[in-house]
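Figure 3 (text version): structure tokens given as input.
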């Protein structure tokens, strides 16, 4: 429970509370995790379709990298499991590429493993 509280606080601090709503479009269960103390009747597990512009793709890449930075550490790496990439659109593939570059840059190597 203490570690989960640490992760939640790390996400809010690193990503920024105002930016978590954008990530919740892609990870609906993130809303439930970050707002566990608030009762809600909203269905936050429904899939969403998101259309990208160049600037929004850059922002989403930054937010995903921030999220991975918040939840991982070289001594406790996160596992990012990617499946069915043959169905991914161009924007999603570009975001995945940005995440892979982030993992190799700025001392982030080993923070997460992509499979």
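Below: residues designed for each position.
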């Amino acid at each position: 429970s203490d570690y989960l509280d640490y992760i939640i606080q790390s996400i809010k601090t690193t990503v920024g509370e105002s930016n978590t709503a954008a990530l919740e479009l892609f990870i609906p269960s993130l809303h439930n995790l970050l707002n566990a103390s608030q009762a809600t009747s909203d269905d936050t597990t429904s899939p969403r379709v998101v259309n990208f512009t160049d600037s929004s793709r850059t922002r989403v890449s930054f937010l995903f990298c921030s999220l991975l930075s918040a939840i991982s550490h070289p001594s406790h790496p996160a596992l990012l499991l990617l499946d069915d990439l043959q169905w991914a659109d161009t924007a999603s593939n570009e975001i995945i590429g940005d995440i892979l570059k982030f993992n190799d840059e700025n001392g982030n190597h080993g923070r997460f493993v992509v499979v």
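The first strand starts at residue 78 and ends at 80.
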